[in-house]
Records
---
Amino acid sequence: MRLHIILRYIGVVLLLNAAFLLISAAISFFNGDSALFPLGYTGLISALFGVFPFIFVPSTEEITNKEGFTIVVSSWLLSCLIGMIPYVLWGGEFTVTNAWFESVSGFTTTGSSILTDIEALPKGLLFWRSATHWIGGVGIIIFVLSVLSSMGKVGMVLYRAEMSPLATANFRFRTTRTLQIIMFVYVGLTVLETMALMLCGMNLFDAITHSFATIATGGFSTKNLSIAYYGSAAVETVIMVFMVLSGINFGLLFVTLLGNMRALLRSTVVRFYLAALFAGVALTAFNIHGTVFSGWLVSLRYAAFQVISIGTSTGFATTDTTLWPPFSQLLILFFTLQCACSGSTSGGIKIDRSVLLWHAIKKRITKVEHPHAVVKAKIDMVAIDEDTLEASLLYIILYIGIVFVSSLIICGMGVDIMTAFSASAATMGNVGPGFGLVGSTGNFNHIPEMGKWILTGDMLLGRLEIFGLLLFFLLKKWK
Amino acid sequence: MRLRAKILSGFLILSAMLLVAGVWSIYELSTIGISVQKILDDNYRSVNAAKSMIEALEREDSGILLLLLGKREEGRTIIGSADESFRKAYETARSNITIPGEEEYVDEIMNTYDIYRNLWRQSVVGTAREGDLNWYLRDTHPAFLKAKLAAQRLMTLNDQTMYLTASNLESRAHRATMPGIIAVASAFIFAIIFSFLINLFVVNPIIKLTDGIQHYLDSGSPLEVRIETEDELSDLVSSVETLIARSKQ
């Protein structure tokens, strides 16, 4: 493995981070706030570290899969490391552990926060916090590759290492074209949401930061009360629409935008996704009506926002769901585990795997009935090979296993079972809020220090789809 | 890029990291010094003035009690000197308004003091008020308490601001020390990367070239040294190749 080549491409990622850090520093400068130096200095360090390998290391035509993989995982880890420096430098509630937690939560688009008073943060730092969502949402490497489209074969290797295998199925284009489509949809949705939020009365800063957090399905708000601060049905509706859109495979969204609406509606995964959200909203509204809220409309409003927010792994809040009946809490926990479609910015197990699981169950039942029958699982008339099916089922088992183990460890630190389990599930699924002490209006500040490190591990495992991070630590064994 | 520029850029980057962090630490530390001075100038003087006003008011209250007991001379002397002290302290507070809303607090002191002052300016000894505790408890003592409360409120306001400024100083101290720590850690990592790249792109090619020349001298086989970069080292290799070619002719 050529370390210098890895350094060169990680340098590009650092330069991307530096650009956003310097934009945040500029906001601090114009706002005259105390985050100017923390952001500016980190931007400078990031830029210098990013530029230096370019000076020494000549470009290369090809990289190996192993190198590509190392570049991807290292880029995520280094971005999180660089991302925590402005927090540490600024101080306040940010200890080293808290800064790491906030940074990882930002880049992995989890949206869990350790902050008890978000509004005490200067604007520049608030912008950086949202920017980490936006950089991480589409995938750090995807972001870089779409900016630098001339990487040739290197780009292809990095693209394969970054993208989930499930996500690529919906992109039937060349790598460069796919990257262009992803970025077009990503930036387009962000711009559209910013404009829509401004039309609803939000100021430019809040509109941009909330759009970053919505399209990346992150969930960091600039307000202590999250979206509840605005108390506006229009704002909530706009955010709900864009949360739902951000949970759909970007390739399908692009095809729909080109006029092929049927592709979207005929997709089993999208239909399952929309049906699950619809059922979730209806059941929750029915359950909270009369117990939490007296009116049907108000029940529907809060149920829709919370279910969509969790079901797309965004994590914004308009109310305290820890006060909801156990049925609604369990329903939301189901969405915390499942989340939305692959190829979107969403986290969790993903609908695609749920659909595959459902088909695997159907296939098994048929095999029991007709032991000699040759049964093929099919989605959208396409046969699913055994490898994909097995990998998906293994992923689900491993995913739940990791959630269980981290819940167990956190419980062992004296945290109650609901808080421990929901915190583990919410961080593993990159959702954000859980239940118990880490509810939709709570925060993760009181989780023990070691617990925070475990939860950040969950966030990274969830974002890199488990195998990504695990393989990185087993690189030496690669042949 | 030439080798000289590459090495120079490494040192420049290292210097920039340390320089910026150093300058910022110095700036934050000097700001802490200014803030400490500001606390003393802005708040501590007002706190002292408020304390003096409270002390003067208490002396005036004692003077009124002496008047009630019929001790006119002693009472008037104490009240006169306390009034003078109060006015001096009040002027200090008036000239040191630095906190938003502080002016209203200062105005309130003078308003309540004027009411109190009008009461003790009246004749007491030899009038119906002498020995009249009801007059004291009904009129003068409540007015005294009101004036004292107004002065105490000014003191509390300045105390709170002092506490807040001191808390900010803690954050500033944090900001002054952290750049140093981050800069040292970054410089350390950078130095490792720098030496790795120097080793890879400078030392290794020299070793390769030396080995290549030695191999040529030992076996007479052609010099085969590939240098990835286009800098002084690649120039050196081609010069050696030219030298060998010429020596063969």
Note: Chain B touches chain A at residues 1, 5-6, 9-10, 13, 16-17, 20-21, 24, 171, 174-175, 178-179, 182, 186, 189-190, 193-194, 196-197, 200-201, 228-230 (CB under 8 Å).
---
Amino acid sequence: MELFALLGDFTVRTVAIGAALVGVVAGALGSFALLRQQSLLGDALSHAALPGVCLGFLLAGSRQLEPILAGALVSGALAALLVMVLTRATRVKTDAALGVSLSLFFAVGTVLLTYVQRHQGAAQAGLDAFLFGQAAALVPRDLTVIGIVAAVSLCIVLLGWKELKVTTFDADFARSLGRPVVAIEFVLTVLIAVAVVIGLQLVGVILMVALVIAPAAAARQWATRLEGMVLLAALFGALSGVTGALISASVRGLATGPLIVLVASALVLVSLLVAPERGLLWQLAHATTQRRSLRAHRVLVDLYRLGQAHDDPSYPSEQGMLDAYFGGRTGHVLRRLQRRGLVERVEHMPEEGAHWVLTEGGREQARELLVPFGTREHDGGGLA
Amino acid sequence: MNVLQAWLDQPGVTIVLVGTLVGVAASLLGTFLVLRRESMLSDAISHSVLLGIVVVYLLTGTLDTPLHVVGAALAGLATVWLTDVLVRSRRVKSDAAIGLVFPALFAVAVLLINLYARDVHLDTDAVLLGEIAFAWLDVVRVGALEVARSLVTMLVVTLVNLAFVVLLYKELKLATFDPQLAAALGLRPALLGYALLGLVSVSAVGAFDAVGAILFVAFVIVPPTAAYLLTDRLWRMLTLGCLIAVGSSLGGYAFARAYDVSIGGAMASATGVFLLLALLLGKHGVLARAWRRRSPTAPPFAELGAEGRP
């Protein structure tokens, strides 16, 4: 009920819809950035948006979203260009190039920000909102702008799907097919910049990178195909956006941007742990099962070989002896085998402790286990 | 003594000195980060030290404690360690791991401030942007002199960093250029790496008051990168990086005073001017490269390569 009450609130609904839109675009395009190992380009692009935001404001003279978005996009593109020049034309490595471009553009941004604040008087209202995001400042008109930009960039992704896919996974192959790889990479970079830029007002330049990377990284754990990954990442992005916006609306004083980022991070953590096949918990469970069945097999074979050595298939083996052959305690292994009906505990010389025999089923399984090693019926008592 | 005091009492002197020290402290460490291809870790660390500061504040209830340095160093190392864990799980690549860890820690820090520290002077803007312009207001007494607190802090940080680089020069050099050999000689390059990043965290805290977290990153990465385009020798790269940092502090201060803008931002932007110069004119810059390509005397190894290949 409370949720419906929240969604009934006009401001909350505006913010939630905006966050969902931003999440969808950031998730979908973040997938490409993640797969191309350009996650930190998102970081550089979002920091680099700051001077553009200020310039857009200075040129337009008002805090309208379009010039600010355009400015952010242009400065993002320039930052990406700087990264490209540094890595392609000099020996500077990618990490340093990203760091240079990020910190220099941000530095220029702070200079411009203080210039705007000190020289434009009261008109500066709300430019700091772009540092950490200020969801409450979102108005329905902004929503329209964000919506149109989101729709256009998703359409570009759909129309150029094949080209984007082949360039993402195998740029050399794409080149050999005669695809304009440089142009496609440029389009992808611009699209990622667009994803970053439309989220700035909500999440802020500092944290926007997380919304580009986290939904994609979470989706990567579940999906094995690009189609599924992009869809899932868009879904995760929208989910983080809406959840973050709703929590922020229901708890006073919590900023929206950090909440969205934390929800997205939690999604990553959960995905890393429980995603089928790739999930760490699944792998742990798988490894445990494997270790268990290996132990059971070794004990079965030991019992079988002991029987062979004594020319008595139902030879009662003493548990202490099995421990010695196994090189450790076998009690729990034997009890598990007993539950599966493969061994039986027998009363044989009770003063010497527990004794165990193979059942018919146990002998059958031990024989099967030994098949790959060659069935040597009587080999003089050699044990596994 | 009085002359020195009078000199230090000028706000401009303190500001430029603090900026210079931040720049030198940062680019000494940055040189190794750039060479080890770990520059972006400094960005991650400089964000997540905020969490260390906030947690220490919530535990002690004050912002004036040396424990901040410990908290920040731990937060920085936690960032590096978490990134490492993610990479080793082989579920995400290293770039994505960095981009996943620090925003999460930073978001936690911002929310903690939202929840518990709303009314104190622990402003996220101030942490990110710093306000070096007020550095001279907060003074402490050292002997017979009254010196700005951040000047003392940064002097200590710079001396520690300088000692680290000078005393472990050989070890750092080997661990940077040939970690396998360093490990084989028993130098523990991984431990050295953690020490380096721990110092980066401590320096980031020291630099907070002065230039803010992200501008600190500019001083860590940009001067060494510019120096990297100018020279092939490690000690020259270190020296040039420091010189560029000093020049940027002076130039940035002059610019900021002239146009009344953020001093820290102007200092960090000024490093970009040096980078552009190095990019154009440096030994490994674009012009030198273009000239080398056109020049009739091709480098000797190019001929060798052509002949050597059947």
Note: The domain at 2-289 of chain B is CATH 1.10.3470.10 (ABC transporter involved in vitamin B12 uptake, BtuC).
